[in-house]
Amino acid sequence: MDTTIQENNYMVNDLAAQSHQEHYPGAVIRVDQLDDNRFLFNCQNGVRLLLHVLSDKILRFRYLTDGPLSPDFSYAVPSEAVSRLTAGQVEFREKPDHYRLTTARLICIIQKDSLKARVLDRSGTILSDDEKGFHWEYDYDTGNDIVKMSKQVPAGVHYYGLGDKPDNMNLRGKRFTNWGSDTYGYVKGSDPLYKNIPFYHVLHQKIAHGIFFDNTFKASFDFAAERADVTSFWAQGGELNYYFIYGPTLMEVTEEYTLLTCPPELPPLWTLGYHQCKWSYFPEANVKEIAAGLRDRKIPCDALYLDIDYMEGYRCFTWSKTHFPDPKRMVRELAEDGFKTIVIIDPGIKIDPDYPVYQEGIANDYFCRRADGPLMKGSVWPGLCNFPDFTAPKVREWWAGLFQELVQDIGVRGVWNDMNEPAVFEKGTFPSDVRFDYDGHSASHQKAHNIYGMQMARATAAGMKRFSFPNRPFTITRSTYSGGQRYSSGWTGDNIASWDHLWLANIQCQRLSISGFSFIGSDIGGFVDTPTGELYARWIALGAFHPFFRTHSSGDHGDQEPWSFGDTVTDLARHFIELRYRLLPYMYTAFWQYTTAGTPMLRPLTFLDQNDTETYLRMAEFGLGDHLLVCPITQPGAEGRWMYLPRGDWFYYWTDAPTAGGAEVWAAADLTRIPLFVKAGAVLPMQPVLQYVGEKSIEELTLHVYYKNGTAESVHYDDGGDGYAYEDGHKTLRRFTVTGSTSDLVLTQTIEGDYQPSYATYRVVLHGVAGPITVTTDGQAATVTEATLETGLKLPSLVVPVGFGEVRVSVVQSVGEKGEVPATPAA
User: Fold this and answer.
1) Per-residue pLDDT for 301 more than 60?
2) Of the four, 214, 350, 591, 743, which is 20 to 30 A from 286 by CA?
3) Is residue 167 flagged as an active site residue?
4) Where is the Glycosyl hydrolase family 31 C-terminal domain (predicted)?
């Protein structure tokens, strides 16, 4: 062989090998301070780090390998969310081998020789320490950089979050990928699933922080799986752009992240009621039969769903003339009986020249195209379809307008977006060369895939809000990205009727809630296969404590209405659905906390007490709102379960038995119960059972007041549950304080706002107080009577005006030595 050719071959092979090498930043040669809180670190090989101090708790790291600073655009973080943040005073100093930025809460060190970052709290505790730090690899096939970040794993660290991953709550030792996928009948450990939420929590030395990797390309996360001392995340393109979010509590990390990506508006109250769904309820006679079955059996329900069979040949925004000849009349008649109609809308638009939606899409170039120009085609339920480019503002505006007839004319109250990962039958999703507008930042499917469902939900929510006014809208989506909680509720996808999936439903909903997406639930009973009556009863008991509460099943596997498993299970389903409706004031208040402070509605045990290491690996128990602790039964034949109570004092809901936390306890729970505890000092607002929200005016609300030797606070928010008057101040926040001692219990109320509820009185029910007692309301003697609760307990109660200031309970007989609360006689 010619030696010149041989040398050239070596050279070519060497260059090819170099293209797959990992590259690293060079030494820092200059730092440009762009303003008071943005610093640009320039390296000798052209790498740059833009470090933005958003607040004293949030640092943004944005690494660039070459070229000019690209436009700063994010679907997850709206500009208004950033503008609300203030960094305070940021101190910047140069040291011999590093640069140091200091805020009121954090210290950030950037190494001069490597651009590696270390973040500490002000006491000097290391929170985050780069291992290799930022590095990248050129991908010859796509032209993108595969951007990577690796960090050290300190001893005793734990990881949580990352959205809908169906695995143990604690993520340490696992690896996951975000690439929204239609995963029918997934199992524990399946990955990826439908949602793409690149945000996780780190808990070390009882101090928490979060990492939000805002990159929409296919992304992976390794939580010390490959190497026990390294955790890493990387993406197949785009920027290495992440936010460090300091707690120091896990709850604060979620709150800061949720406010950064923005929580949703308040939903209408009826959406927190019970929903009934199936693939599919048709024709009209079947829908009416289901509605009558619920009302005749006195099973509360607010919403009925129509799956793809309501359409004409699965064409979106049409109605089957055979199955639903007069949808406007049907929807009106259902509404007269208290049912809100929800319809499914998928992204695939059937290629049919006689179909107006298709005609408009073609005429205005609204559909996605391949790289060389032809329209992207894929098969879904209608057959061969084109797909709207929801990343284009003009397409979202068009799509929103399509809901006018459905909502304004026919009266549909909610829309359910499915198949929007996006899913197609040929190869799972779109080809990688499909092009997207990406709000003016042209992109391929590799970049747009993970946000497609979110942008579809965004366009749908815009249409629903426009045409539902003055009522509030409702949407639900299967796929989403960080920030998608602004536009929609969600569910955990095509699960299976099994005990394993009941366990998964509990974990997934908790995980999504702490990942900023609280309005979540699962298909109760399972979508695939048929549950036993016992499994359905246990599942609906859990679902009653999830924000989104819906039975849904595939028509291929038999009936799955609450009465499908015999009279005993019907009674159990009614029992738990009624409990949910009584708890609606509490649920709505928890949702208000979520929308205003970013507080997750479902709270894993670790979030309730991160200083208790016993909570770190447990996952069955969870908090709902401020005062309830729930632990589902997830095994057949059980008459109860062992569970861990967080530190503090608790009451078992079903018996009022007081129980000290910080230990495992046995919770007796036959099929009529789910292990449910109420925190001592809680004021739990509950309403009468309604068959649907708005069925009748509520004349009296019950306040369940739980004794505490000490002081505790509760809130109750109310604004009527629909409309937008609350934005003009027509709302009321009631703050309750319980102060207890061995001789008395005092309940005080302060009121903010001017909303006047329909009820004029509270019935105050006293828990954990032994008699005889004397009671005064605002200094006047009050009459105490015995109330019989739905649990069978007989407890002291009194009626007070809603505007009361103080209720004072004096205990003639001591409530126990050293504050120990005896069980009530009824318990």
Assistant:
1) yes
2) 350
3) no
4) 598-684
